[in-house]
Amino acid sequence: MPDPLNCRELVELVTDYLEGAMPPAERARFEAHIATCDGCDAYLIQMRETIVVLGTLPADRLSSTAEEQLRGAFRDWRAGQAPQP
Length: 85
What we know:
With 85 residues, the chain is mostly helical. It has helices at 7-18, 24-36, 38-54, 64-78. It starts with 6 loop residues before the first helix and ends in a 7-residue tail after the last helix.
C-alpha cells in the first residue's frame, strides 16, 4: 500500500484532483487524506469556492500589477519562500 499523503503533497496535487486529472490510486490517497485532515478538507472547500468566485470575474478585471504580484507569490510559495509584500 502506498504511503499516505502529507498536507504539503495534497496542496501540490489539488489542481489535478479538482480537474479530474489524477490517476485512481493517487485519487484514493488524496481522498483518504481529506477524510482524516480537517485543515486540508477546509482548504479543498476554499479552493472550490475560489474557483466558483473567480470563474465569474472578467479576465480584464485584474491589473497587470496585481497579476505580477500573484505570480510572484505563487513562485515564492513553490520555492518554499515567504511571500514578498
